[in-house]
């Protein structure tokens, strides 16, 4: 059984990836960047998955040695199935990082976190000297929040406090993210909840202001990171 089939038996969503052709085209671009000995930070989501697949093929064909720093258990599992060795930020530093995004504005600010992995994604992105955001054409927006809510990961004990503080920032709506079966909230890898937040307008300082609310672990606003945007 090939990698893709092995992974699909565990991660069903990999069979139905939206805009797959565009995502594969941009995945091929990032695979070109891989060099022997690279330590690579790996984001989460379907575009990152396709990029990891392209990278793994190249690594195998050219017998390269690379080390991956995953941003979720899912990516870690995928690396294991593909035979890519992994490490953590405690033992290695990424030479570069790649990831997808939900929205990219004209100043390269991002909304991320539809997969709920923004805490680890921000940690690894910030630890890398170079970051590449891989996006299909649907991800470009004229302002952040145009299509998606901004996710905020919250310690369960702090949900009411965070909702109250967010209201002061001009929030239109903050919805607890629910599991697909709607039988309970989404619980992140760290045991937290996610509030999907719609603002009247996302201002420059919001990432820091949201992070400063006690109980907020991280938000999916990535403002001022200036990653390189790769697209088709
Ligand atoms: C996960 C993320 C993803 O990068 C983002 O949601 C984009 O996902 P996809 O590549 O599946 O469109 O931030 O936390």
From TrEMBL:
Pfam families: Rib_5-P_isom_A (PF06026). InterPro entries: NagB/RpiA_transferase-like (IPR037171), Ribose5P_isomerase_type_A (IPR004788). CDD domains: RPI_A. Keywords: Isomerase. Its EC number is 5.3.1.6. GO terms for molecular function: ribose-5-phosphate isomerase activity. The keyword Phosphoprotein does not apply. This is Ribose 5-phosphate isomerase A. It comes from Cohnella hongkongensis. The lineage of its organism: Bacteria, Bacillati, Bacillota, Bacilli, Bacillales.
């Amino acid at each position: 059984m090939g990698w893709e089939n092995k992974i699909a038996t565990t991660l069903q969503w990999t069979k139905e990836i939206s805009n797959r052709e565009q995502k594969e085209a941009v995945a091929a671009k990032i695979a070109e960047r891989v060099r022997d000995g690279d330590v690579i930070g790996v984001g989460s989501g379907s575009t990152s998955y396709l990029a990891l697949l392209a990278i793994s093929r190249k690594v195998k064909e050219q017998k390269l040695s690379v080390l991956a720093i995953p941003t979720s258990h899912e990516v870690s599992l995928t690396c294991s199935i593909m035979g890519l060795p992994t490490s953590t930020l405690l033992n290695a530093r990424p030479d570069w990082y790649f990831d997808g995004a939900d929205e990219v504005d004209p100043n390269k600010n991002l909304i991320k976190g539809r997969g709920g992995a923004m805490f680890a994604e921000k940690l690894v992105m910030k630890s890398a000297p170079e970051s590449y955001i891989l996006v299909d054409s649907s991800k470009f927006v004229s302002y952040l929040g145009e299509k998606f809510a901004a996710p905020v990961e919250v310690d369960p004990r702090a949900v009411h406090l965070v909702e109250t503080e967010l209201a002061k920032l001009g929030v239109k709506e903050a919805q607890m993210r629910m599991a697909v079966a709607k039988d309970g909230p989404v619980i992140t890898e760290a045991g937290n909840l996610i509030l999907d937040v719609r603002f009247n307008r996302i201002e420059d300082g919001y990432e820091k202001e949201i992070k400063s609310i006690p109980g907020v672990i991280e938000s999916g606003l990535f403002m001022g990171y200036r990653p390189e945007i790769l697209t088709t």
